[in-house]
Amino acid sequence: MVCLDTSTAIDFLSGHKASVELINSYEAKGETLTTTVVTVHELLKTAAEKKRVEIETFLDKFYIYPMTENAARQSAQLYRSLEASGKMINEMDILITGIAMANNESLVASDKDFRSTGYDRLRIIEK
Question: At residue 110, what are phi and psi to the nearest 5 degrees?
Fold first, then answer.
């Protein structure tokens, strides 16, 4: 299984070649695609009605990880670590990483800021 962050989902929906090819390859291998409730929120919060239908159809292919107590604790620890190191990133990205960590899930992102997390199951898609 592989968990996609918001930037990867947006790139796929926008037709970005690397993201489309990667997601299609996971599907072809029969891998379960996952994402987080944070990504659902980020994708839908400002989408126009027509785009929301496309996003909902896209999300139907995914298992959506919830925010659990364990994920909240992982996220909080990551936040403190990033703050102490002076390498703070977007808080939504911290939540996404914490959820992936809590579920021992590989995380695919196209946002290079995720590298600051030090998460060992991270894959960055180059743009």
Answer: -110, 5
pLDDT in tens, 3-44: 999 999 999 999 999 999 999 999 999 999 999 999 999 999
Hey, how many other C-beta atoms are within 10 angstroms of the C-beta on 4? 28
Longest dimension (CA), the chain: 43
**How many CA atoms are closer than 13 Å to the CA of 26, on its beta-carbon side?**
19
3-state secondary structure of 9: helix
CA pair distance 62, 82, nearest whole angstrom? 29
Which domains does the chain possess? 2-124 (3.40.50.1010)
Residues with Cβ within 8 Å of residue 62, at least 6 apart in sequence: 4, 33, 34, 35
As beta bridge partners, residue 3 has 34, 107
**Report field, pTM of the whole predicted structure over 0.85:** yes
